[in-house]
Amino acid sequence: MGGVIDIVGPNRALSIFGVKLVGFTAENGMKLLLTVVLALMFWGLARLLRRTARFLVRGRIDARTMFWSNQAISITVTVLFLIAFVSIWFDDPTRLATALGLVTAGLAFALQRVVTSIAGYYIILRGRLFNLGDRISLGGVRGDVISVGFTHTTVMEMGQPPSVQMADPAMWVEARQYTGRVVTITNDKVFDSPVYNYSREFPYLWEEMHVMIPYSADRKRAEQILLAVAEQNTVKIAEMGEDALRDMERRYFVRADSLEPKVYYRLTDNWLELTVRFVCRSHGIRDLKDVLSRGIIEGFAAAGIPLASTTIEVVGLPPVQVRLQGQAGSS
To answer: Does the pTM exceed 0.70?
Structure first.
């Protein structure tokens, strides 16, 4: 191979047909080989740590904790590899400063969204915006968090109630139940839009149901039925626990007695609207409302209370006069 491929110069650079290739030196070749070996070693270390973690906590841990332990292993191994990579390739401080300047300029221009997404990942971790399994609304997407990565969050999408059915994107499931679509959201959305968390520290929601009855119906009896059905099927204060109640009072400045179901009246032109307000868990709301609706219908039917509907009542007509003119020429 002499004369075609040679090693020339004090830096032992690679030369092909007498043309010296910039950067292709014996030193860089050794650095490249060492980098590949270290990458394989750190990859094997990460797999070993994950298997060890699964073995140590097998059967005594939930999916959320296992997910974050894997995240911690990935971050630790990545940081160690970056330190080793910089130590190999930038042993000269002047070269390191120059390289960092070029890399920073390139990232600032070409990878703005990626860098912002990575920053959003650390905001999610440090700010505890949401966790694996939380039900959130972010970037116009509602659903349960199934994965959080360095640049994106994966959500199992759920439908929307009829009141927001026309919101973007279009939805065909008219309740907070899974649609079957898995949606990927970039983490930079935490800087652009609010994060709605349905189940962060307090996994309960206040919900309402509206029932219309005629003004002539027994409204006191209707209110009793609504309260009885709600108290029987919704979350009771005793089920929340003292710790959850104290935390709720401290965070939301509400009293425990405000968690009891309550009925509100609203006057309309056509009927009396009864709104029953209650506390429920963040999941299974459609099933709960189905049970409540069935109980309310059965209770109203037993009490003889009709449900109001849009009707038209004709209350009277103006008098109508009809004049008959005789035919011309009649005697």
So the answer is: no
